[in-house]
Specification:
The protein is α+β, with helices and mostly antiparallel strands. The chain has a single domain, classed as 2-Layer Sandwich (Muramoyl-pentapeptide Carboxypeptidase, domain 2). The chain has helices at about 1-15, 20, 35-40, 85-105, 150-155, 175-185, 195-205, 255, 260-265, 285-290, and strands at about 50-55, 55-60, 65, 70-75, 85, 110, 135-140, 190-195, 215-220, 225-230. It has a 6-stranded mixed beta sheet with strand order 4-6-7-10-8-9, with helices on one face. It starts with a helix and ends with a helix. The chain binds zinc ion. Zinc ion binds near residues 125, 128, 133, 135 and 227.
């Protein structure tokens, strides 16, 4: 019986296709990082770690934000970008739960977090690479479950006026101020990126309680969604923090810069440079090849 079993095993070994015996060759260091990470369909089953910088890194041990919660819905499901460091996912769940009381919205619509193993993406975003960034739409969640098709096709509402000089008063509400303020006031959040026109409106509407404005940073785009960035989690020893935000509410000369004619034009984008795998931290190759 034993002999027959061994023989059978031998037979299997002899006839098994070559691919079952030989592990895939390691990816070439010169290979395009965004092609490799864009193809990763599942998380790397390793400890949860944000590795590298927000614009050059990867993510191990990611978890997916469930596509439906009581107070959130994930949009653009086909992109498979609802993955983050567990700390980011916990933050989003906790934050979403507070939104009905804060804003009177049914909840939030959540855009991109990161890919299952983080890394650069084939389309969009320079950042969102280490599982600590998330986009939250400025459109309130409807009080019903959107269909998968609606989540692909529905567009966000632009909160900024056509000339980019201020918010669109037909769209902007006090609830927007409260939602952005609540995000900025969360101790885990280091930065909230919004369009300069939105920062202008927040500076105007904040009143005397202004400390939270420091974390709200003007940036190109971000007229459909705000971008939330949390800090490096404890234990992510290879996560490189950003410089602290400068002191002050950022409502003065720094904000005025954004409204000069040359800054109001769309951001000049040259041909996007393709990052090689070797340009990411070495640990990212391990994250990529983990089974
Ligand atoms: Zn973003």
């Amino acid at each position: 019986m034993r002999k027959t079993f061994a023989a059978a095993l031998g037979l299997i070994a002899l006839t098994a296709p070559l691919s079952a015996q030989t592990p895939a060759p390691p990816p070439a260091p010169t290979a395009s990082a965004r092609e490799l990470f864009g193809r990763a369909a599942t998380a790397a089953p390793l400890a949860a770690r944000a590795i590298g910088t927000y614009i050059r890194g990867c993510l191990s041990g990611a978890v997916a934000l469930p596509v439906d919660g009581k107070t959130w819905q994930v949009m653009r499901l086909s992109r498979n970008r609802n993955w983050g460091h567990p700390r980011l996912v916990q933050f989003l769940e906790r934050f979403a739960a507070r939104v009905p009381a804060i804003a009177g919205w049914a909840g939030i619509l959540v855009g991109d977090l990161a890919q299952p193993r983080g890394g650069p993406m084939l389309t969009g975003h320079l950042s969102h690479q280490i599982g600590l960034d998330a986009d939250i739409w400025l459109t309130p969640m409807p009080a019903r479950t959107l269909t998968p098709a609606e989540r692909e096709e529905m567009s966000a509402i632009n909160a900024v006026a056509e000339d980019w000089n201020d918010i669109d008063p037909k769209v902007w509400t006090p609830a927007h101020v409260r939602v952005i303020k609540a995000a900025a006031e969360d101790p885990l959040v280091e930065r909230v990126l919004v369009n300069p026109a939105i920062k202008k409106a927040l500076c105007r509407d904040a009143g005397t309680d202004r400390a939270w404005l420091r974390k709200v940073r003007p940036w190109y785009g971000h007229n459909w969604h705000m971008h939330i960035r949390i800090g490096c989690p404890p234990g992510s020893t290879e996560c490189k923090p950003q410089d602290a935000v400068p002191p002050g509410d950022g409502c003065g000369i720094e904000l005025a810069w954004w409204f000069r004619p040359e800054a109001l034009k769309p951001r000049p984008v040259g041909p996007q440079r393709v990052m090689k795998l070797s340009e990411l931290p070495a640990t990212c190759t391990k994250v990529l090849v983990a089974p």
